[in-house]
Amino acid sequence: MALRGSTGAPPHVPDLAADVGDILIAASDIRAKVSELGARLTEDYAGRQLTLVSVLKGALPFMADLMRAISIPVQIDLMEVSSYGGTSTETSGLVRILKDLSSPIDGRDVVIVEDIIDTGLTLNYLLRYLRGKNPATLRVCALLDKPARRLVEIPIDYRGFTIPDQFVVGYGLDYGEFYRNLPFIGVLRPEVYGRS
Ligand code: IMP
């Protein structure tokens, strides 16, 4: 018997090659940008210690590459949040912390490492939450900025790429938890949204 989702429809089996339309950012361009951001962070935080706080799961590849592009002492911490109340391609701004910081950040120079800022609601919540933990400084490094749908203004101190209002996957970004392992960032074909 075939496995079925809660709607009764057969679950969508992702086809990594067919489901992604245009490649928006090639792997080589991501590599170059990550090196550039790492060099800027190295320079800006010279003589200090940096704490990178990344947000699982989407920022995982970015965090892994970015930390290796930084040549000053760095500590890392990981949080996991989920937004709820939205749809499969939209966030709601209601954020639940699934995994909190492992160590205190008071008095630390902290940079939040994010995969993408869309409405800004998730990061707005996180900024307020982390400010409450009294870091010495708190900045934002985001690989992708999708400004078209921004609902709250977010100070992005380190920005990788500004992208158009399209749903993208790859390099950590998912749809239905798949496509994260693509080495590039591509546009998910809109037909795929309706299937799972
Ligand atoms: P925001 O709260 O609307 O800024 O959304 C932030 C989160 O939504 C990101 O960390 C992603 O997990 C997810 N997200 C927003 N846009 C995209 C996209 O185009 N592809 C995949 N995930 C996205």
Q: Explain this structure to me?
A:
The chain is built from 4 helices and 9 strands; from the N terminus they run αβαβαβββαββββ. The protein is 21% helix and 30% strand. With 196 residues, the chain is of the alpha/beta class. It has a single domain (27-166), classed as Rossmann fold (3-Layer(aba) Sandwich), CATH 3.40.50.2020. The chain has helices at 16-19, 27-44, 60-68, 121-131, and strands at residues 20-25, 50-56, 74-84, 94-99, 109-117, 137-145, 158-162, 168-169, 185-188. The chain binds inosinic acid (IMP).
Topology:
Blueprint: H1 16-19, E1 20-25, H2 27-44, E2 50-56, H3 60-68, E3 74-84, E4 94-99, E5 109-117, H4 121-131, E6 137-145, E7 158-162, E8 168-169, E9 185-188
Parallel strand pairs: 2-3, 2-5, 5-6, 6-7
Antiparallel strand pairs: 1-9, 3-4, 8-9
Helix pairs in contact: 2-3
The structure holds inosinic acid.
Give the oligomeric state.
Answer: single chain
Q: Helix/strand-derived class?
A: alpha/beta
Hetero groups in this structure are:
inosinic acid
Radius of gyration: 17 Å
CATH topology: Rossmann fold
- Tell me the CATH architecture: 3-Layer(aba) Sandwich
Q: How are helices and strands ordered from N to C? A: HEHEHEEEHEEEE
Mean pLDDT: 91
Query: What is the strand content?
Result: 25-35%
Task: Catalogue the unreliable spans.
Answer: 1-6
CATH domain class name = Alpha Beta
Secondary structure: helix percent? 10-25%
User: Number of helix segments?
Assistant: 4
* Sheet with most strands: 6 strands, mixed
How would the global form be characterised?
globular
Q: CA-to-CA gap between the ends?
A: 18 Å
Domain count: 1
Strand order of the largest sheet: 4-3-2-5-6-7
* DSSP strand count: 9
